[in-house]
Each structure stands twice: as C-alpha cells, then as structure tokens.
C-alpha cells in the first residue's frame, strides 16, 4: 500500500496558534490549537511573548500529528499564515527577542507617527507604501523598541539585530536561524516596503530610525523558506513553501486569484480584500493598497478595507442591550421582522472607519415607527453589517474600475442565512459561502501543496463546495433601502462629506 502525503499549515493568529493537516486532495483532516497570553498594560499596550508563540508552534504540530495518527514522515510541505503588523526585534546570533512582540492592536507608536506627520511626510509614505501613516502598522512598533529598550539602538547600529513580523520570526526559529525571509504580503503591511519598487524603502526606514540591514529578505510567497524538523520532532527536515499574512491567506484560500475577485471575512470586525491584478491602485476613498502575494515571480496587488463593528454589533445586542441570547437568534428574529420596517442602525460606537473615516461620529438608531419592535431592531442590526460591507465593495469597484461578479465570504456570521441573503440583495451579486472554515490556513496549505506539485491548482479549487445566495430583491426596493442607509450614515457624520478622505 502506498503511503499518503500531507501538507501541514501553521496559522499563527492574534489569539493563538493552530496546526492544520491537509490530505492529498486538500481536505482538512485534523487541527490542534493553543492560546497564548495577551499581555495588556494599564496604558492599553498589547504584547505577546514570541518565545511562547514558538513553543506553542512546536506543541500544536506534535499534537496534530498525534491526533490524526498519521505517520509524521508523510508530511511533505509546510505553509505559514500569521497575524499581520505585529512586530518584534531579536538577536541575530542567539535568536533571543530583545523585547516582547508589539501587537497590531497596540497604538504606542502614535507619537512617533505624529512627529513624522508634522514633518510633512504622510503623503510620501502613502504613495510609497499604499498605507496611511499609522501606529497600527509595524514601522512605528519597531521604531518604539529601538527608541525605548535599553541598549537596542546600539546593537542595531552594530548589525547584531533582526526585526520583522511573526512569519519571519517563525521561519527564523524553525530553520535554526538559517533563513531570515518574509514574503511580499507581510512586507507590504509593515509601512516600510515600497510597493511600487518592490523593496524596502530606505527613506522611510530612515524616518522611523530603522536600519534597513535589520529587515528580512523579501521573497515570493511560495519561495523556498528553508527546511525544518520542528526541533527534532520529525526524522527528516521538510520544506516551508508558503507564507502569507492571514487575510492574504484567506484570499488565496477562497480562490480569488484573478483581478476583480473579492472576499469579505466577517468577524468581530470585517476585512474586505479585492485582487486588483498586477498594478497598484491608490485609493482616494479610504481603502488601502497592499500586495496580495508574489507567486512564481508574478506580483498581485489588493485593495483592502477594514470595518470595526460587524459581528461586534450582534455581540452588543446579546451582552449590552440583552435583546437576544445568541447569534443564531439574530437571524431567526430578522427573518420574522416586518419587511417594510425602515429602521436603520449605524454602529458608530467608536466612530466610523472606511470609507467614511469619521472618528467623532456616534452610533444611532433611526427611522423607527410605532410598529417597530424587538425583531425590527435586531433586523436593523443584522442589516447594518451588510450595508457596511457593501459600502467598501462599491468603493473598491469604482477605484479599480472593475465590475464585481460575486462576493466570496468567510467567518462566523456567514452562518446567518438572513444576513447572507440580504448581502446578496443589497450588492445585487451572488454571495458564495464555502463549506470550510480556516481559510487562512487553507490558503497557505494550498499554496505550499501547489508549489511542491502535490496539488493541481484547478482541481483543488473546483473541489471546494460552496453555498450560493443569489439576489432576489426588486431593484427599486434595493435602491430605496440603500439610499436610506446612506441617509442614516450622513446624519451621524461630523464632517461635511459622506465620503471623507483620510
């Protein structure tokens, strides 16, 4: 009997680390995960212990092999997806971190960004990197470590240090320090990478006080990232052949490989990402430009928009206003509500993000009548998720001058059939929900498997089954409903325009 072959994906996320095992046809056969500590200071600073994350990586790999009962020697390739923007600095020779990893949520680099903005460099940074100057990205986090951790600046000058995102740290550790590489998707989220010239931007590195020698070699996402035996766990070393930031991994896992293909991940907030092909498009309407990936020497770019409150709106209904007891109940109530009710909820609890960018906007419920009850308010909360996603999708379509044929979606709220049908209705295009979760891990597993020729790309994506929602709403009703949403948003904006540039 011939032995089977397997691909191992490591999905290193904000809350934990997962190992996912895929068989010869790309099916997920086992997973194992471990959480890591979320270190949050009194100032609201957020950190992770990189050594704990590496130890957990080894732990979940051992656990998933034991759980699946496969022969560990049948694993033939590895992919890594990772939380983006989280950044750290470590000693080149010893591999010891000089400080904890500073998490993407942490805004401690704000003063650094403010100084650079005051000096007049914001627009240059946006035009070179595709990103708005912000402490959210890795540059200000690395700069903070160099400025505030004793002795680090001196060691950086002596070329003793490496810095990077979680993918480059894991690759470095897994290969015993032999490989110091990152891929295009992760490099493009640091705010230090020139997405036009495809190299570290010396001028921006200098502005943040980061020697470019500290940065990893930037490679295709399916490059050879070295080999690992997971600290002696495997009998022989196997290659790492797929590295992508988590949102990019989900884009690849969804099969959005061509220009104009778009996916939305519904979580607490939402990330909408659109493949815009081989040329960058800089948005004037509040979405950012990054690199999707580099594969086999070919680069793809993306537009990306992030929304703060999507699934979090349902959580608010459950925990704060106690209108419902579960997320499932929201879908059932929305279905039972009066279809003619014109209530809108604008969830600007912490301002509005893309494409409005109004941090002073406050939330509102409007359009209620005497017959508006609990079901109608819950319906408005569910529908506001679809309206916000639609705002971003429409902006992307305009900016990239591409007609969008369908929206591919993933994440917990996609189980809500009312939401998915309404999303299709308001956009006027089909919405496709895959029968699989773990899209980030699937993306890097598929990329690694295609690269080592275990998988055939076309067969792999054809094999994925999806639940399809087609638009059913009358065009006039759709236009009226969407105009009502835009009016509701306009009423909470503190700026003059309903589409402010950031």
Output the keywords.
502 residues, Nucleotidyltransferase, domain 5, globular, 35% helix, alpha+beta, seven-stranded mixed sheet, six-stranded mixed sheet
Description:
The chain has 502 residues and is an alpha+beta fold. It has two domains: 6-244, ATPase, nucleotide binding domain (Nucleotidyltransferase, domain 5); 255-502, ATPase, nucleotide binding domain (Nucleotidyltransferase, domain 5). The protein is built from 16 helices and 24 strands. The protein has a seven-stranded mixed β-sheet, sandwiched between helices. It has a six-stranded mixed β-sheet with strand order 3-2-1-6-15-14, with helices on both faces. Helix 9 (246-253) crosses helix 14, helix 11 crosses helix 12 and helix 12 (374-400) packs across helix 13. The longest helix is centred in the C-terminal third of the chain and has 27 residues, at 374-400. The chain is globular, with a radius of gyration of 23 Å. The chain starts with 5 loop residues before the first strand and ends in a 10-residue tail after the last helix. 51% of the residues are buried. The model is unreliable at 497-502 (pLDDT under 50).
